[in-house]
Structure formats: C-alpha cells, structure tokens
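seq as requested:
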Amino acid sequence: MWEKAEGHSVRGRRIPGLFIAGVLALLLLATSTLGPGPTHGAPPDPTPTPFAGGLVRIPYEDRAQVSAWVRQGLDIWEVHPRHVVAWVTGPQHDQLRARGLSVEVLPQDRIGPRGTPSYPSCYRTYAQMRDFLLDTATQHPTLTTLLDVGDGWEKAQGLADRDLWVLRITSQAVPGPKPRLLIVAEHHARELIAPEVAMNFIEHLTRHYGVDPEVTWLVDDREIWVMPMANPDGHIKAENRLNWRKNTDDANGCLEGDPPNFYGVDLNRNYAHQWGGEGASDDPCSLVYQGPTPFSEPETRAIRDLVVTQGFDLLMDLHSYGDLILYPWSYTEDPAPDQAHLHAIAAKLASYNDYKAQQGAALYLASGDAMDWAYGERGIPAFTFEIGSRDDGGFWPPCDRVDELWRENLQPLLYAAKIAEAPYRQVYGPDALELTLSRSLPITLEATISDVHNGGQAIAS
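struct tokens:
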C-alpha cells in the first residue's frame, strides 16, 4: 500500500531501478509524440467563442413571466408548458444567464434564412405576388376582382411603390348578396409560408371552378377575399434574408439594432381593440412595438377600412408557426362572450390539419391584434392560423415542405368558406362527403354524412 507522508517523500516498497527507467522512457516518448508543453510566459489557451445569437430553450415559472419577456423584446418562437424557445442575441443570452436563468442553446440548423445563399425560389417576392394577382385577375375576369386597398408605409412616405392588394373571388354570374370570408396573410414579414398558403388557395379556387363541385358551389355562393401580403415593405426585408417581423416605419427611432428588435411597428399590435395592453410595448426597439397610436400605420388602416366597408362574416389571419388555431381573446385569459362557439369552430378547423385549437391568450398575452379587433369591435368571428412547426423549418420552411404545409390547410380554409353564412350555427352540423348526383331522371342524390371532423360537438337539427 502507498501512503503519502509529510513533505513530498513517499514511503512504501522499494521500487526497482529498472522500473523507474522504464517509466522515464515512456514519459520521454509521450513528450516527443505530443510536442513540447507550454513554457513559462506562454499565452493561455484562447477563451471559448462568445455566443453570437441563436435559438435557445428557457424555463419559466408562470405565464406572466412569458408575457413580461415578450413585452421586454424577447423573440419567443414557441411556448411549451414549462419552457419557451426563443431567438436571442449574444447580449440577451448573457443577460438571461446573469439573472440566474438556465439557458440551453439548441441546434441551429434549419431555423433561419441566413444559411441560404439567396431568397428561396419557392417563396414569391412582393413583385411576383403582385404579378400573380394581376395575371389571375386577367385570366379569370368573371370570377375575380383585384383591388388596391392601401399603401405600405414606404409608399406613404414617397420611398417605394408597394401596395396592399386583395383579390375578391366570386362568380359574377350569380347575384348576391353573399356571405363574405376575409383571409389576411403576413402581418409579420418573416412568416413566409402564410402568403404562399393564401396564394395557393386563390389558385385552387380559380383552377377548380367548374371542375370540382364543392369549389364551384363556394365560388358561386360566397365572396372569398384574400390579401396575401399585409406587410409588403417588411416582406422586402425578408427577401434580403433578414429575420424581420415588423413593418419598416423608422419614424419612431431605434435605427440601430438586430432584427427583429429593430425599427418598425408590429402591425399585429397596432389595432384599436385593447391597444397598448399586455403583450405589446411602447418601446420602438421591441419586436412587439404597438406604434404611437392605434392604427398609426397605413397597413392596418387599410385593413380596418376594408373590413368596415365590406362587413365580413368570418376572418382568418394566417401566421406561422406553432400548429395552432387560435380564437379570441388574445389580450386576456378571460373567456370571450361566444367562447363555446369560437372554440367549436377552431376545433373543427383544427380537425382537418391536426393542429391544436386554443384561446389566443393561452399562447401568450397579445393586445391590439387583428383577431381581437375584428371580433371585439366588429363582431366578426375571427381566427389565427399558426402554420407549421419547428420540425417544418419554423418561420422559413425549406422548399420541400411548402407544398405539404399548404395542402394541410386547404380543407380548413374551404370549411371556413362553407360556414361563412352562419358560423355559430353551421359549425355544429356534420359534413356531407362523397356526393354523387345521377345524370338521368329521376335525379338521385347520394352522400355520406360524417361527424368525424365535428370534434365531439352537438349536431344541429
């Protein structure tokens, strides 16, 4: 047995000289193999590279903490029962760690546009979106009407020429009045899948009219209004591969920073209902900056005026991501007056794409958004789609995911058009599937009546 004695000597068994020589030889061999060790005065090993920014996981204790982080400008991408996933800058990462929070850096693959050499071809630019709408209106003059309903902020300042376009789809051969559905996409610029879903829905309706009986009926008996890009100036920033959320209004300061905590107004915090409350910020550098006043931005004023003028019966606001269908309220956890009906509609929509239906505030509090304004001020049942998941690529799904994400949302949008006449009543009915109609007299109609997508709700007689 070896024992450590006082001083530096070692007591124990006698060590043979041959053994000592062997050990010395091995040490010399190791030294020659590994190279010389550090000498006195040599510079220390370089320090680890500081965290430059990226996706992290942060635990939280309650939802109030999450709402406070949003208000302070933390870019939260996902909310889970015990943690959030957020994009943080290097300084934010260090500040969170300094507060004693456990910040876990996540894999950074497929989460942003910086890794792509150019704007992906599967996502249309603003110019391509405008040309698509112009071509569609030209090719289908009896089914579509293209309207310029307002300006982007830069056009209002004389800096650019970008407009808010909306396409009305309805058969002009069938007189009205007809129920009206409004679909708005891309309040937030980086949510690139939303405009693609909107434009693909336009293409589906116009291409299948006269071919698909369901589409033909909807275009004959409904007015479906689609605005693919509610934030055209912000979309230009996304085309330049920036993590941009807000519009480009730079009149309120914050001209230096890192997107999305940069200049601009969060258009989905700029609506009048409960403007300036929880989940929004009066800091121009915040990613949820509410603007100086309600409807301060030309984009939100254009949407407001369109809704007030047309009196829509149902509104769908397309965002990403989260695999969610949200319903009012977002500004408070209190239930809306029509909570049961709103949840029933959201659950029915979600039954088609396997998303989760929940109240907006269950994600985190957000005041001044379009959904709450449409419902709270105009009485319109309104819903928010959060399209896709982080596994799909988050805000920037790769091109091989775009078609699937669009197709999983086709049936929910068709269903929204179906119930636009009386949403709170028609949601409780079953679906008529596999309709067949005889070609000769007597006319026979056959259909499968299914309650598969009814979400367990009662059936209206």
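The two ends are 91 Å apart (CA to CA).
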